[in-house]
Design a protein that fits this description.
Helix content: over 70%
Number of helices: 10
Largest sheet: none
Length: about 180
């Protein structure tokens, strides 16, 4: 089938047909073609307008589309995310310098919410419904919420019933391996 199409095309493109087409339509420069089209458009504007299909005019927006509901403010959420990120720079050292249940709870909440927002951004970016379907993004988002709540609950349990978050991390860093004991 494909071979017959190739052969038919070869017959049409032989030297005699090329010479005939060259004699019928001599080569014109680009500027000549453009000038002829412009001249025809000035002489007969109505006929050109009738032959050309109507152009669909679209508005181009230079700002981000507003897809959020009226009662939610994503600008405020973005600001809160940045405040939590900057706040972590002060909370982490303060929790280790002055360990207490309040500082540990503040550290736990800010770390978990910061992590939750980061992973949520990845879920929203990479689990698009157009790519993976409608069910998987919802399952991933629900799983993220469950994991974040479980992590926060676990950290609160550790703060309340054990040595606390900052002291627990200090003790973990103080663990020496078998290699360190042999050298000492």
């Amino acid at each position: 089938m494909s071979m017959s199409l190739v052969l038919r095309g070869a017959i049409r493109c032989n030297a005699a047909n090329l010479l005939k087409s060259a004699r019928i339509a001599p080569l014109k420069s680009y500027s000549t073609l453009v000038a002829n089209v412009q001249r025809r458009a000035l002489v007969k504007p109505l006929t050109v307008a009738k032959t050309i299909a109507p152009v669909v005019q679209r508005e181009i927006s230079v700002s981000a589309p507003r897809m959020a509901s009226a009662e939610s403010s994503h600008t405020m959420l973005w600001t809160v995310e940045r405040l939590v990120s900057v706040g972590l720079l002060a909370i982490i050292p303060a929790a280790f310098l002055a360990p207490s249940q309040v500082m540990d709870a503040l550290l736990a909440v800010s770390v978990v919410i910061h992590t939750h927002w980061g992973v949520e951004a990845m879920v929203v970016d990479y689990m698009r419904p157009s790519v993976v379907g409608n069910v998987l993004p919802k399952v991933a988002h629900i799983a993220l919420i469950v994991i974040s709540v479980a992590a926060l609950g676990g950290l609160f349990y550790f703060i309340q019933n054990d040595v606390g978050l900052a002291n627990g991390i200090k003790r973990f860093w103080a663990i020496k391996g078998k290699d360190a004991e042999k050298k000492a």
